[in-house]
Design goal:
Blueprint (H helix, E strand, L loop, with lengths): L5 H5 L3 H13 L3 H17 L10 H23 L4 H6 L20 E2 L1 H4 L3 E11 L2 E10 L8 E5 L9 E2 H4 L13 E5 L2 H16 L1
Antiparallel strand pairs: 1-2, 2-3, 3-4, 4-6, 5-6
């Protein structure tokens, strides 16, 4: 019978160590099982952990903007009733109505379709729907564009926006397949101005 000392077990390859453990378990050799498990734990602990990749400048920008948009969303939710229950109650009779979650499951701005399909670098948004009306506030950065060229978009039905422009002017790169939430919108270079326009439109359907 082989004397399975700690040194002998430590000299085994990973596969041989696992085979020995299987055999020891089959024979109910408690001492060898304990030695094998101890060696496996030691080897797992010695494995270098996967280092998380540092965020690129664009990803860092996206994360920061997602947080800021979420804060605006939370402020609006504290000021207006944006609950899904109320949205559903106020939208009875709207065919195919589906309430919008203001934020994503982690509490950040949601991921827009144009970023999801890779056609733009950043498309993060918050939105609210009541009836057929959808109002959204987003940060938008074209693919391969300098970060400083980003814009903030408020997209809503033209009746809810002062000075609304056709969506094709606000997002000229959007295709028919990349359906937008409304047929008009406004673009802003700064978030405070966009947030004010977003609230003005939101108040018309949620006040």
């Amino acid at each position: 019978m082989v004397d399975w000392s700690d040194d002998r077990i430590a000299a085994l390859s990973n596969q041989d160590l696992k085979n020995l453990l299987v055999n020891a378990e089959r024979k109910a050799a408690a001492d060898i099982i304990a030695r094998c498990n101890a060696e496996l734990q030691k080897r797992n602990a010695a494995k270098p952990g996967k280092a998380s990749k540092p965020r690129t400048e664009a990803k860092e920008f996206e994360h920061t903007m997602s947080e800021q948009l979420a804060e605006i969303g939370k402020a609006m939710a504290a000021k207006y009733d944006l609950s899904e229950e109320t949205a559903k109650a106020k939208s009875v009779g709207t065919k195919g109505f589906k309430a919008h979650k203001l934020l994503d499951s982690k509490g950040f701005a949601k991921l827009g379709g144009m970023q999801r399909d890779g056609s733009v670098a950043v498309d993060r948004y918050i939105s609210y729907r009541r009836g057929t009306d959808i109002v959204s506030l987003s940060v938008f950065l074209l693919k391969d564009a300098p970060i400083e060229t980003h814009e903030f978009h408020v997209i809503a039905p033209a009746a809810l926006l002062d000075g609304a422009k056709p969506i094709a002017e606000v997002r000229p790169t959007a295709t028919e397949a990349q359906k937008q939430t409304a047929d008009s919108g406004l673009a802003f270079p700064d978030l405070p101005s966009a947030a004010a326009a977003f609230e003005a439109a939101l108040a018309k359907i949620a006040a």
